[in-house]
Design goal:
Blueprint lengths: L1 H4 L2 H4 L5 H19 L2 E9 L2 E10 L4 E8 L7 E7 L5 H6 L1 H5 L12 E7 L8 E8 L6 E7 L5 E7 L5 E12 L13 H6 L21 E4 L6 E5 L4 E9 L6 E7 L2 E10 L2 E9 L3 H12 L2
Length: 299
């Protein structure tokens, strides 16, 4: 990646005043999910597929709970998800402003990999918003256009943007209600003490296998099943890598499936008399998925 080769003095220009303001909004957004309780109706569009769900999110205490009900399924299926908020997921850590800048002028977190710009947004679900556009600085990731609640920082709308400027996937609240009236909240940059107080949970151990190449900025987030799956994120994009040893010989080849901004790339090879299937699934371009799969199979 070109950014990695630049000296610190050049990298520092990515963290200009506009970038710092945008990073502060990302920091606020990463905290809003843990701190706010709300319910609403959300539409999710991936290509020609549109789903409508109802979300009820409750924050507070050591856990946050989320009840998701599908409104477009005839069965009206529902799923209850509980998350620990005791510590900080590595993906959230990458978005936390203090953690991004504590490394000095060359830090800047996701601003190293995305060009950030802020503008006034149009109302979403009756809420005033700020628009945040994240344009990738390389070809290994997609761009994002976000609409953040101007008062709470909650993500109300998001689009995944292809290198050609096409919207691949769209998420948007059609209606939202917070659990209590919320006064206007100023965006504040966290102090070093606040960052130090954040406990990082679920930090991964060194896996027994891993790709020999990754796009710069991606970190390992999940090793609960390290023999079969590894998950990586740069704070925005996420992809998982699966490796399967097959007993029977296979014919070398590859397959690709796309749905909205998500790609599933599978490659099978014979490696040292062992048949191996590697699959990369995530919101990254297909060439990125192919290069990561190749890096798993590389001797």
């Amino acid at each position: 990646m070109i950014c990695a080769a630049l000296p610190v003095s050049v990298m520092a220009q990515h963290c200009d005043e506009d970038s710092r303001k945008a990073l502060a909004w990302l920091d606020k957004t990463s905290r809003a999910w843990d701190e706010l309780s709300y319910r609403g109706v959300v539409s999710i569009q991936r290509g020609d597929d549109i789903q409508v769900i109802e979300v009820a999110h409750r924050a507070g205490g050591q856990t946050s709970n989320e009840l998701i009900s599908a409104l477009t399924d005839r069965g009206g299926s529902a799923q209850n998800i509980e998350h620990s908020v005791k510590g900080m997921h590595p993906g959230q850590q990458l978005l936390r402003y203090g953690a991004q800048t504590e490394g000095g002028a060359g830090g800047c977190g996701v601003a190293r990999y995305y060009s950030l710009s802020l503008s006034e947004g149009q109302p979403v679900a009756g809420q005033d918003t700020v628009h945040l556009y994240l344009k990738p600085r390389d070809v290994y990731r997609y761009g994002y256009l976000m609409a953040l609640d101007k008062h709470t920082g909650l993500l109300l709308k998001a689009q995944i943007i292809s290198p050609q400027g096409k919207t691949l996937e769209r998420f948007q609240f059609a209606r939202i209600e917070y659990s209590a009236p919320l006064a206007g909240i100023e965006v504040e940059v966290p102090t070093a003490a606040q960052v130090a107080a954040d406990e990082v949970v679920g930090m991964p151990v060194v896996p027994v296998w891993a790709p020999k190449w990754l796009p710069e900025g991606f970190v390992l987030t999940d090793t609960r099943n390290p023999l079969q799956r590894l998950t990586y994120t740069d704070g925005l994009s996420v992809f998982s890598v699966f490796r399967e040893l097959v007993d029977e010989p296979i014919v070398a080849g590859e397959g690709v499936v796309r749905l909205g901004g998500t790609v599933s790339y599978t490659r099978g090879v014979m490696h040292a008399n062992q048949a191996v299937l590697v699959t990369v699934v995530g919101d990254v371009p297909v060439n990125t998925a192919r290069m990561v799969a190749d890096a798993v199979l590389r001797p």
